[in-house]
Structures are given as structure tokens and as C-alpha cells.
Write the C-alpha cells for this entry.
Amino acid sequence: MFRTFLVARNESGRVEAFEEIIGRVAELFRARLVVALVRDSSDLTKPVGASATEPREGIEGPAQETDSRVQPVMLVGEFISVVCDKGHEADVIVVWHSSLTRPDGQEVAEQMSRLMREAPRPVWLGREPIRFPEHIVVAYDGSAHSGRALHMSANLAETLGARLTVLHVNESRDDVAQELILGRAAGYCEPYRIKMERVGISGGAATSIRDYAESSQCDLLVLGATGVGYLRGLLFGSVAAQLIANAPCSVLVAK
């Protein structure tokens, strides 16, 4: 499923720690890890640290040199254009939550929203706490997009040796429909050799998903790009904004 991971890197130590986790994931998938150094234009006069000067595979755009002087690196806008407008061979795009913004924190919502919305590939958004995915939670509402997220989650769980929780939020209080949806999810996961749990809860979508992810101490929350019902506008409205801004763990958006 994942043969190439494209990682947007800045010089934060937290990004390096997160990248180590992604490197372990890539190894288990026997995948390539491609790193793009991303900076804001206001930060281009600073020398590139040693951690970013090792030879790396580049991506379409300005080539990276491998010395400690100022380098031609990817600007934020260029990176997003390459990924969203031109597409890329990577099977998953990996970004630390603050990598595509200035140090003062401005523009992060707009940058991340566009990346999540327009990228043609799955987007893995890294957040604190930085942990290897041992517990994966996938939000499932029975739609085709959430089904894709479910299969991706099951594949990840099997490859990484993680346990999987399939979460359904019952906004309509229809317990019968919830049981049918969770039963369908169990059938989809049968081909995978994983430890799976089905959980049905009631409440508002964004708050319920976030609260469950936090209380269950999950390491990775997986969402479909769009869905039906409470997931219909997930990446195009307030639900997405709340989850992206306030998720208590890393988030993977399946495409």
C-alpha cells in the first residue's frame, strides 16, 4: 500500500523525532523515505543545520545541495503546489503540524486545510505525543471514503503490529443502524490478521472523535476524506478544522 513516504522537514527537533518514527514505519512497509526541506521565505537567510545537509532524494522543484551554507530549498507555497497541483509519486505525504507555517504560527490553518483538502494522496499529519503507532483509531460511518480509511487502517495495523479500534459516532441515536455499520466494518477487517475492537458512541462528531482519541490514548487517528452523515463535510468545514487543530495525536487522512 505504501511504497514511498514524502516527508516535509524543517529544522525542529520535534520533526526529527517524528521523522524517526516514520522511518520505522517505512522500513516495515519496505518503502522509500523521501525528504523535502521546507522553509518560509522569511527564513531563507539562515544556514541549514547538519541534520538537513545529508544527501537526500529530492522532489520536483528546487534541487537540494548538500553543504552547510544557504541552500535552495522548498518554499511553503512551492511544496504545496508540487503536492496539490502537480501531484507526486509518493503514496503518502507526511507533515509535522507546524512545518508548513512561519515560526510565529501564522497561516497554519490555511496551509494545512489546503494540503488536507487538495492533496491527491493520503496525508499523515504529525502531532504530539510522538509515539510509534501501537493503537490506531479509525472513524467509520459506512461511506466509501471511510471504508477506504478502514482498509488503510487495517493494513497499517497488520503491518505495524498495532491494534485497531473502529469508531462510529451515533448522532441520530439510531442504535440499530450503528450496529449494522459496525458489523459491516468487522466483515471488512476479516482478511487482516489484527486485533480489532468496535466502539459505538453518541454525541457531536468532532468532540466525540477527539474525546475518544484522547481517552483511549490512541497514537494515530485515521479519517476518510469525505463521508456521509457526520463525516460528509469532514475536510471542508468546522469538523475538520477542529480535529486538525485539536487532535490529541497524529492524524492520517485517507484518500
